[in-house]
Structure prediction request, 262 residues.
Amino acid sequence: MMNMNRILKQAMTRVNPEIMGQWLSKVHHGDCVKLMDKMPVGSVDVIVTSPPYNIRNSTGNGLKDGRGGKWERAELVKGYAVHNDAMPHDEYVAWQQGCLRAMMRVLREDGAIFYNHKWRVQGGLLQDRADIVQGFPVRQIIIWQRSGGLNFNPGYFLPTYEVIYLIAKPNFRLAPKANALGDVWRIPQEANNPHPAPFPVELAQRCINSTTGQIVLDPFIGSGTTAMAAEMARRAWIGMEISADYCKLASERINAVRRMIR
Prediction:
């Protein structure tokens, strides 16, 4: 198994070693767009991320503003540590498009973004994420089939999946035989994680292992899931997180994985 220090050295040869040495294998605290703007163009191979879903800006009676909805004990009833997850929809779309533009800038011409998001019903109509990803080179939609929770709305069926947009640069190709995975992934949700909305390590592993990319970026690293998966896959990684508390949590979980795989 390749030594992690050797992997980092190989990754740094892609662009200016002194510059990349400042980024690799670290959780960087700050706004992800501002941080990505400081990175060299074309400096990462693959991006695996799941942004806040803006779930508290809802027409339903679940997490609606955290005031007396039917999910009063839900983890996200108060939003994230430093983000209320309740932006006006047009502002949220503009924010996420700006994030994707920044991701595309740092992505190599043979790279891809695995952008995990969730469709929902708003005002009685399906709200997919076409308004966010329009204009970006979406190559495929992967269905993450997970277990459902409870649905108090009699107007539509219980949601049991999320989507992963594969946003790919022109020269992107999957790792050998990875296409056999198909486009429906049955993976259980994360359990025993103090972060309010984590995605499972197995999901990040599948994204990373389906590519040959050696530098993995997650602009919304949260509890460190993508970095943990990258460590297990012996890939270099870069994490970004606006919450200092989540930065600390991510670092603790990443260090635990490092001890485990030594």
